[in-house]
Amino acid sequence: RGLEVRLFERGSACGGVIKTDRVDDFIIDVGPDTLLAHKPAAIALVGEVGLAERLVEPLPRRTTYVVRRNALRTLPETSAMGLPTTWHTLFTASAFSWHGKVRMAAEALLPPRPPTAGDESISSFVLRRFGDEAVRYVAEPLLAGLHRGDAARLSLRALFPALADAESRQGSVSRAWCRMPARKGGGSMTLRGG
Question: Structure pTM?
Answer without folding.
Answer: 0.70
